[in-house]
Amino acid sequence: MKQTVMDVMKVTVEKFGQQTALNMKIDGNWQATTWSHYYDQVRMAARAFITLGLEKGKAVSILGNNCPQWFISDLAGIFAGAVPGGIYTTNAPEQCRYIAAHSEANIAVVENAEQLAKFKQIRDQLPDLKAIVLMNGTDEDGQVHAWEDLPDLATQTSEADLEKRIAGQSPDDCCTLIYTSGTTGDPKGVMITHDNIVWTTRQVAASVAVSETDQIISYLPLSHIAEQVVSLHIPLLTGSTAWFAESLDQLGDNLREVRPTMFVGVPRVWEKIQAKMMAAGAQNSALKKKIAAWARKKGLAGTYAFQAGRPMPALHGLADKLVFSKVRDKLGFDRCNLFISTAAPISKDTLEFFHSLDIPITEVYGMSECTGPGTVSLPQPHKFRTRWAGPALQGAEVGIASDGEVLMRGRHVFKGYFKNEAATAETIDSDGWLHSGDVGQVDDTGFLQITDRKKELLITAGGENIAPQILEGQLKAIPAISQAVVLGDRRKYLTALFALDPEKVASEAAAAGSGARDSEAASQCDTFRAYIQTQLDGVNASLARVQTIKKFVILPEELSIEGGELTPTMKLKRRIVNEKYAAQIESMYADA
To answer: Could you give all domains of the chain from N- to C-terminal order, each with its CATH number?
Structure first.
């Protein structure tokens, strides 16, 4: 039976009304919101939005960090028959303008004065915009309404009028717009229906066995479908509790306070945790280092044994008592039974680092166009393998086209791109298959492995097809390297840009005999460069000749969202990297 988002929330509130739905830290203390209060707030905000002029089928743009107001605004827009469209907090005013204008937003909900300033700058270019709601604070502008004004505004729209909006929707209606990262041009508006969200969430929750006792921490951008499914819609279906991290910088502290029962991270988050753990471990005594090294060998062997359904190696239990349990406690993972990496490929080095600590990170493959997950890999014997994304989501299909492109089909496949029938026709074929743009393979057990982006394959001057993401993952196993970008499309050989890990530069430079103590100094140090070359030679030795990296440039700082090289979900913008570092790239081909 198909349901709407409103149907789902109503059932959950009836079951778990007095239990905690949301937890937000205010003035240093966690403050809980019950399911009943949450539901009342959503309905109140929906009525207020209607009062402010929100029309059926128009949009509510939301610009802010994860918080209860974000969830409430999103659901209020859906209840009112409109479509919420999240905007990344790092977006520039022009990027905000594009999304708000394209989605025909009647209302913008912004977090604070900083984000409000962006909309004030562009509102004369937004003909559909009728009001701006400020989550925190007040403003004298007549078009701007404080969050505290919403209850009074709601009194001007009756519950009966809201019920008409709710009753006028069907499960196959678009209820959310997810804007793509725009790595290859303007973002596209992915139309997600009620049924897309409800069905996908139900399949994931059933596969993972989520219940009302689960605790989930919300910290990844809510403009991204993965975070919406994990922290907004899974609790909405199951009655589990969402906790809002104070910031990405405070995530470590918040994890220890919340002690989530499941945790989803993008590769960059896992890499950052890894770097901090390695830096901390380097400060341990010689005895502790020796014990940790012994335990990690047991942990890695144990993870691979577990994947294959074999018995744990001898003394694995002792290693858990001495090391693994203490690590999980320190990270806030002591009651976490599901660790997921998603949104982009993660390196084998990072996976095996956590595997060696008995933290079995599984990979989930998906995209906005399939409402998040296309596969689900579980920490169970025969249900996950390192560097494989698992089998298709239960009830869905995964296939491989003749050219290696990954295809998906099922009720999770989106309705189409808003105002872009041509792109929709290119993406969903006549048989209902979603063409992902990724290249991969499916083995005889149904497990999917992604090898690269179809459009990012490098074709060398010699006609060799090279998957850069695979090589980049191997290059990041070099301890000092935080990020790697492989280059060589239509060139005679491959080269790379390396960004160094700030947490490791000093120790790695010391090991190299270099006096450098930061990334900028290391990037200019010949001794440090020779040290990296030696380690690169080791990686090259394991590669086919056409895959070897002939030259490299060390960048003075990491690639970042602020620098424009990464999307808000930390995916690499190759075109921007090529443009920004054109001089450095050309220097590596000057003699070619």
So the answer is: 5-210+220-232 (3.40.50.980), 263-413+429-454 (2.30.38.10), 457-587 (3.30.300.30)
